[in-house]
Amino acid sequence: MPSPRPVSVTRRSFATGLLAGLCTSSFLRAQTTENVHFNVAAYDRDHILSTANKALQVAPATITSIPAGHKDIPTNHYYSEDVEWFKTDTGSMEHRPGQINPSAFSLHRDAVVSMNGVVASCTAAWRLTNDTKYAQHAMKHLHAWFLDDATRMEPQLDHAACVPPSTTGTYRGVEDTVMLAETVRAASFLCAYNGVATENETKALRKWFSDFVTWLNESKPGFIAREMKDRTAICWTMQAAEMARFTHNEALLIECGHRFRDKLLRQMNFDGQFPIELHTRAAYAASIFTLDCLSVACEVLSTPMESLWEVNLPDGRGMRSAIAYLFPYMQNRSQWKLPADTEHFRDWPVRQPSLLFAGRAYDRPEYIALWKQLPIEPSQPALLRWFSVRQPALWTVRPPA
Fold first, then answer.
1. Is 161 helix (H, G, I), strand (E, B) or coil?
2. Where does the pLDDT of residue 53 fall: very low under 50, low under 70, confident under 90, or very high at 90 and above?
3. What is the DSSP pairing of strand 85-87 with strand 79-81?
């Protein structure tokens, strides 16, 4: 059998092939750019309107209607019990990291989760349709929670994440309110346009969240949370940054930016893992939650002049390595190299905001594709406490100043 003839490559054929390759690459690049910067609100239209129409049937119900069961806790003070603490047979309390105690009091936290779901979905629907019924309903809930003296929640977490029988809050209470960042994002839109929030309502809302930020900075639990070297500090920064933006607290925004660069990024190792989160019985869920909250903080603190998605430590650690580490395991949880979570391992991932934000920031269509394929939200309502962004359409456009 004769040997195959060698292929002759001339300058013209090489140049033609190179040009074709460049054209193909440019075409694919254009397709990629279009794919990762798609209109999230339009894509999510059916879900937004469905959740908002259900939300219209939900009347405001704040923590004042849910007794904490302790005489020394006023009705408008938030109360919760740390879900990782269990009562033993001897009556003492035992810490079991990564496990969830179903008996722990969490009704106030669930009420905050519910309120944010209503406010966020109605705000997204209003921006999508311009129908004021959605905006007005969102304002009703904001009024009840933050403005009306009879029903408002006090802007502090002095009794959050308690370890019974104590009713003194701990630093972990800051994790209870991560969803308030999205509530603030929604309020930004509602307060920016005439005919929705009045000037007095806007001032009062900014005052409430400014007072909450003061608590985050000056209270003992808030101070400890801020200085922790685990996800609690990330939850602190995520909330403080978005609230600082809403309340025009430029000094705090700058501080949060420094914390992101100098402290939060240092929580990951060279592989993009968050090592502290791996030493629990819920390492998979904790890693996803931590990355989500860090991604939200990154998105809030990024500006047209500087994207923190591109900031790396001198040794290379940054958001790119964090998302690159977890992406394969979100794509296929069976590849997770650590023991499966003892609870809810198959309930994650869902449409994690880290996938959407990183896909847009890095022009990575595979991140966006996975985000689109995943369930919209956790199937179990109790897991919504781990899901910080329920209306991504509010996060993919720049909020009003």
1. strand
2. very high
3. unpaired
Q: Are 138 and 125 in contact (CB under 8 A)?
A: no
Decide: 143 and 60 in contact? Cβ < 8 Å: yes
In this predicted structure, the answer to whether residue 20 has a pLDDT above a threshold of 70 is: no
What predicted TM-score, i.e. pTM, was given to this entire model? Answer: 0.90
- What is the H or E stretch that residue 159 is in? strand 159-162
Domains in the chain, CATH or no CATH each: 38-394 (1.50.10.100)
Task: Give the separation between CA 393 and CA 353, rounded to whole angstroms.
Answer: 11
Q: What angle separates helix 231-246 from helix 283-301, to the nearest 10 degrees?
A: 30
Q: Is 197 left (phi over 0), alpha (psi -120 to 50) or beta?
A: beta
What would the pLDDT profile of 145-164 be if each residue is shown by its tens digit?
999 999 999 999 999 999 99
Contact between residue 52 and residue 134 where contact means Cβ atoms under 8 Å apart: yes
Q: 81 in helix, strand or coil?
A: strand
Q: What is the pLDDT of residues 88-107, one digit of tens each?
A: 988 899 998 888 899 999 99
Structure tokens at 288: 């996803």
Q: Torsion angle of alpha carbons 191, 197, 201, 206, nearest 10°? A: -10
Q: Give the per-residue pLDDT at 204.
A: 97
User: By the 8 A CB rule, do 274 and 283 touch?
Assistant: no
274 and 268 Cβ atoms separated by less than 8 Å: yes
Can you tell me the distance from the alpha carbon of 335 to that of 286, in angstroms, rounded to the nearest whole number?
A: 17
- Closest C-alpha among 189, 30, 18, 198 to residue 120: 189
Confidence of residue 34 (pLDDT cuts 50, 70, 90): very low
Measure CA of the first residue to CA of the last residue in the chain; give whole Å. 76
Tokens of residue 324, six digits:
């690159």
Asked if the bond preceding 165 is cis, omega within 30° of 0, the reply is yes
Reference 158, options 85, 67, 77; nearest CA is 77
Residue range 379-392, pLDDT digits in tens: 999 999 999 999 99
Q: How confident is the model at residue 297 (pLDDT cuts 50, 70, 90)?
A: very high
- 315: tokens are 């040794």
Of the candidates 316, 381, 378, 369, the one whose C-alpha atom is nearest the C-alpha of residue 350 is 378
Token reading at 78: 């938030």
